[in-house]
């Protein structure tokens, strides 16, 4: 599914191709909080491909696509998100994404 989304996001893919070899984000730490969807997975993979160290939380307790979060977590990127988080869990996840 991520591969399909990559075809729908040519701007990010072109950015990876053009700037990936130069690693312009090497040494940069990025904490993200955005809906954890397949499209966000493509964004996260792009940030990593550009050299960034990334940690992620979802901005909405209902919008997380668990399979997208799992796919990114499987690459070694810390993802603190799952569909149906409680409000307490949401804030714990948000804090965890900020702690490098």
Which descriptors would you attach to this protein?
Rossmann fold; single chain; three-stranded parallel β-sheet; 100 residues; alpha/beta
Rounded mean pLDDT score: 98
Instruction: Specify the CATH architecture.
Output: 3-Layer(aba) Sandwich
User: How are the strands of the biggest sheet laid out side by side?
Assistant: 1-2-3
What Rg is obtained from the alpha carbons, in whole angstroms? 13 Å
What characterizes the major β-sheet? Answer: 3 strands, parallel
**CATH class group:** Alpha Beta
- Beta-strand residue percentage: 5-15%
CATH topology: Rossmann fold
Overall body shape: globular
State the end-to-end CA separation.
29 Å
How many beta-strand elements? 3
InterPro entries: Adenosylhomocyst_ase-like_sf (IPR042172), Adenosylhomocysteinase-like (IPR000043), S-Ado-L-homoCys_hydrolase_CS (IPR020082)
GO molecular function, one term: adenosylhomocysteinase activity
Protein name: Adenosylhomocysteinase
GO biological process, one term: S-adenosylmethionine cycle
List the helices and strands and how they pair.
Layout: H1 2-7, H2 10-19, E1 29-33, H3 38-49, E2 53-57, H4 66-73, E3 79-80, H5 87-98
Parallel strand pairs: 1-2, 2-3
Helix pairs in contact: 2-3, 3-4
Protein name: Adenosylhomocysteinase
Organism: Stereomyxa ramosa
GO molecular function, one term: adenosylhomocysteinase activity
